[in-house]
Give the backbone structure.
Amino acid sequence: MALYVQKFGGTSVGTLDRIEAVAERVAQTRSQGHDVVVVVSAMSGETNRLLGMAQQLDPDAKRREMDVLVSTGEQVTIALLAIALNRRGCPAVSMTGDQVRIHTDSAYGKARITHIDTDSLQSELASGKVVVVAGFQGRDEHNAITTLGRGGSDTTAVAIAAALKADECHIFTDVDGVYTTDPRIEPKARRLSTITFEEMLEMASLGAKVLQIRSVEFAGKYRVPLRVLSSFIDGEGTLITYGGERMEAPLVSGIAFNRNEASLTILGVPDRPTVAAQILGPISDANIDVDMIVQNTLGDGTADFTFTVNRDDYRRARALLELTASELGAACVQGNGEIAKVSIVGVGMWNHPGVARTMFKVLGEEGINMQLISTSEIKISVVIDEKYLELAVRSLHAAFGLDQEPSEQPLGNNPGLI
Ligand code: ADP
Ligand code: ASP
Ligand code: MG
């Protein structure tokens, strides 16, 4: 008898029929003698609907109250699923994050799980029940409800699997696994039967929303056996693997992208050691995450400094940068809210500089200008004009042969030939 944590996302519980289908699947697993903890998201569209209502009342509503509001979406689905399970004769009990005692810090809207009390989960499991837990939420040390950031139910599931030392954590969603890129952008994308933890971490951090990045971080830290599966069709899905062999990997395993980016440039700042900290200090004090950073020294005692932020933070970041610009006597501030980041990811590329050349050549041949570039051992990211995003993703997908099985991929993706 095994213990499984099974998470079902918004589309998978989006209607009462879908909830019945999830109940059927869970009841089947239970009837095979396994223990099951189910984690569910809110019905699809519900979290956006709740956010929209608060926005109408006050765009700057207190974040604590926002978390009380948006956590309710998941409270609806846990109750409905528990009702559907009990009706089937499969004993089940619903629990909010607070009731389980999923402890988090107080960073409302993007709280981090610090630890999980497993006593109540374990006693409900021991009494033979399926426990249905609300994803995306916890409680802080002041007894306030917190939420874990968009897509956070993935993290709830993996964290519970780690805390309970579950045999496997299954993330059921509306695609049947992790693909070489988002199949909604490139229909020729191919499902990967396995992906290394490092690649999945990069893909998630670079915009592939199939798994929330923090869920992948948890999985890696506690080596949680993690599989992404479809809640609509049967299949083996995609297994996240740990400690794989780098030499045999394809150069590029996947392409991720993020449309939700904006860039800011401050021109003509004094070229001296503390200036970067002066520019980024107010941004970080405002809790705005910065992604890429590039400084160009111009040789005349000045420098230009560019960085990217989440598009939701663009206006705030620009206002702060204008203030810094006048303090520093900078020439001006420029911004671009219509950019996108495209990244190629693969553990096999770590020792192959030719991969970057291929990427830049492909984009150049399509007439796509690269505004910023950043690299790590296993990824290359470029910022481009948002209107070229789909073209860039499809061209790179074809150039690296990702629409073909690894054994049939063209020279472009063969480690021996680049
Ligand atoms: P859920 O509501 O189940 O959590 P999400 O919408 O958060 O589902 O994540 C699933 C979606 O992730 C897919 O519908 C797909 O459009 C998108 N996606 C982005 N990149 C990938 C990828 N590389 N592989 C699979 N899906 C991806
Ligand atoms: N309901 C939350 C969201 O829409 C959490 C989740 O679905 O994982 O982001
Ligand atoms: Mg999700």
Summary: The first strand starts at residue 3 and ends at 8.
